[in-house]
Write a structure and sequence with these properties.
Blueprint: H1 28-35, E1 41-44, H2 46-59, E2 63-67, H3 74-82, E3 87-90, H4 93-102, E4 107-110, H5 117-127, E5 131-134, H6 137-146, E6 154-158, H7 178-188, E7 194-198, H8 209-225, E8 231-233, H9 250-268, E9 275-278, H10 282-285, E10 289-299, E11 302-305, H11 314-318, E12 325-327, E13 335-341, E14 350-358, E15 366-369, E16 390-393
Parallel strand pairs: 1-16, 2-3, 2-9, 3-4, 4-5, 5-6, 6-7, 7-8, 8-9, 11-13
Antiparallel strand pairs: 1-10, 10-11, 10-15, 12-15, 13-14
Length: about 400
């Protein structure tokens, strides 16, 4: 398949992956020793991506929809497919086209609650998409008009949640308030082959009970509507560990969801959703990619590196998140905390960390930064001309700490 046809829907990495059989993939140190890269080097871990996908699919008591926005690189999507993911949460026409062309048998669910009419019509008529999210009467009318009353339509209502404790709260932009949500379910039911209710507890949510509270709220809305709902979509937000953060095991989240879903069925009886969906992103792909950067200068406790907030490290700057980092050479120096400056001329291109590294780090050294498979490559820009990067496959386990 001709990969450049997907370029508009993926991160702006200018060179293709250097593929090799699994038995001969090098580790990160070997790649750096051979290439001595002066541009950011994205290190893809195929085994990690397949294993993470399989673990989630096996643990979740329903259908797993990968959130394509988290990392739409075709290599990543193909590896998740190999790990058992068969459905994808898309939010734009480009994502729909990407998944349909790369994985023709995949189920695509258009889960953005606000869409252009043309985007709905194209997804429906050209790409076989049958499930669409909405959170208002106007959006519902838009979907019905763009699909021209076609059969096999799935309508998934996005429910608003109260502000929660996730690292990235998502309660302010989308979702129908509970009282309005019941009315919208009643409006949608006559048109829907499949009627669903969805929510999102927020990104990087470390509290399993948040899903339980949201499921109970969804149950209240269904009871108020007084009609059968087929699907309960528990959204994404499943967290991964970063330095300084404690994350419960995946089983804790699955137990909370399964337990509350069972209680919901007991309360609602025939009205209760029979099917569960989830939309993980970060939990599947964060550990699957690291980025190797080179130190270009040292200013005391600050290191100038060749990637930054306009590249793969947006979350390290804008959100001040910490990421695991290691120096790619032997050192007996005592570790200390460092911050990073990115390569652009913008003084905002700064990542305070702290990043724990040996105290003798110097110009010319390479540093590997882990947990960047989620949103790292996806948010890259061409600002100031620093848009070049290389992509390789490696055999290493994930860099988590």
């Amino acid at each position: 398949m001709n990969q450049p046809r997907f370029r508009l829907a993926v991160a702006p990495l200018r060179r293709g992956a250097e593929r090799m059989p699994a038995r001969s993939r090098p580790n990160v140190e070997q790649v750096v020793a051979q290439l001595r890269p002066e541009e950011p080097l994205h290190c893809l871990r195929p085994a990690t991506l397949r294993a993470n996908a399989r673990a989630f699919v096996d643990a979740f008591p329903g259908e797993t929809l990968y959130a394509v926005k988290c990392n739409p690189d075709p290599r990543v999507l193909a590896l998740l497919w190999q790990g058992g993911v068969r459905a994808f949460d898309c939010a734009s026409p480009a994502e729909v086209v990407l998944v349909r062309q790369l994985l023709p048998e995949a189920a695509i669910h258009y889960m953005h609650p606000v869409k252009a009419r043309g985007a709905i019509a194209e997804a429906w008529s050209r790409h076989g998409v049958r499930d669409f999210a909405f959170d208002s009467e106007a959006e519902l009318e838009k979907i019905l008009a763009a699909t021209a009353g076609g059969s096999d339509l799935g309508l998934i209502l996005r429910l608003a949640l109260p502000k929660g404790g996730a690292a990235l709260d998502l309660s302010g932009k989308f979702g129908a308030e509970p009282a309005e949500a019941a009315h919208l379910l009643r409006l949608a039911r006559p048109h829907a082959e499949r009627l669903g209710i969805a929510f999102h507890v927020g990104s990087q949510c470390t509290e399993p009970a948040a899903w339980g509270r949201a499921i109970r709220l969804a149950g209240e809305v269904i009871a108020r509507a007084g009609l059968k709902v087929d699907i309960l979509d528990v959204g994404g937000g499943f967290p991964v560990p970063y330095p300084g953060s404690a994350v419960p095991d995946l089983a804790r989240f699955m137990d909370a969801i399964s337990g509350e879903a069972a209680a919901l069925r007991a309360r609602l009886g025939a009205l209760a959703p029979a099917r569960l969906w989830a939309e993980p992103g970060r939990a599947l792909v964060a550990a699957g990619i690291s980025v190797v950067v080179q130190v270009q200068a040292r200013r005391g406790g600050m290191l100038h590196i060749n990637d930054g907030i306009y590249g793969s490290l947006s979350d390290a700057g804008a959100l001040n998140w910490r990421f695991p980092a290691r120096l790619l050479r032997a050192s007996e120096a005592a570790p200390q905390d460092f911050g990073f400056f990115g390569p652009t001329c913008d003084s905002l291109d700064r990542m305070n960390g702290p990043f724990r590294l040996p105290g003798d780090v110097r110009e010319g050294d390479w540093i590997e930064i882990g947990q960047l498979g989620a949103y790292g490559a996806t948010l890259r820009t061409a600002f100031n001309g620093f848009d070049r990067a290389r992509f390789v496959e490696v055999s290493d386990p994930p860099l988590l700490a």
